[in-house]
């Protein structure tokens, strides 16, 4: 496996999805803060950041190789990225609930789910041409 074609994360089309997810996390935090107070605001932001950081890790691991010669590396990096994403999200949730007080759990999970939903739907919303 010495032939690998690497691409920087900021050059991949998935980078735009990550930008949309980060924006969604901030907007949800502002909405929660405006409607239910600052605790709900930063709780929503932290939940969104958990999903976003896990997705950044996945994107970094999964999409760094391309080309037919890198097929084995692509499969291995997809697997490692998904497993790492799940472990990272679980660890960040555990850390969040142990360290941060006060915390609004409903806002945490709302932020997490909104960022995941944006990631799932962003590919449909973004322009087909990733160069623009």
UniProtKB/TrEMBL annotation:
UniProt-annotated location(s): Cell membrane
GO cellular component: plasma membrane
Keyword DNA repair found: no
Membrane topology term: Multi-pass membrane protein
Gene that this polypeptide is encoded by: atpI
Residues annotated as transmembrane: 20-39, 45-63, 83-100, 106-126
Protein name: ATP synthase protein I
Keywords: Cell membrane, Membrane, Transmembrane, Transmembrane helix
Listed InterPro entries: ATP_synth_I
């Amino acid at each position: 496996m010495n032939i690998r074609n690497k691409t920087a994360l900021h050059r991949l089309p998935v980078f735009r999805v990550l930008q949309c997810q980060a924006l969604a996390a901030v907007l949800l935090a502002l909405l929660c803060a405006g409607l239910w107070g600052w605790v709900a605001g930063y709780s929503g932001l932290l939940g969104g950041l958990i999903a976003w950081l896990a997705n950044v890790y996945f994107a970094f691991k999964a999409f760094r190789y391309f080309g037919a010669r890198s097929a084995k590396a692509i499969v291995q990096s997809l697997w490692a990225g998904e497993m790492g994403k799940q472990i990272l999200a679980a660890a960040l949730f555990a850390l969040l609930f142990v360290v941060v007080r006060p915390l609004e759990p409903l806002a945490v999970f709302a932020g997490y789910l909104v960022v995941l939903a944006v990631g799932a739907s962003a590919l449909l919303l973004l322009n087909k041409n990733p160069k623009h």
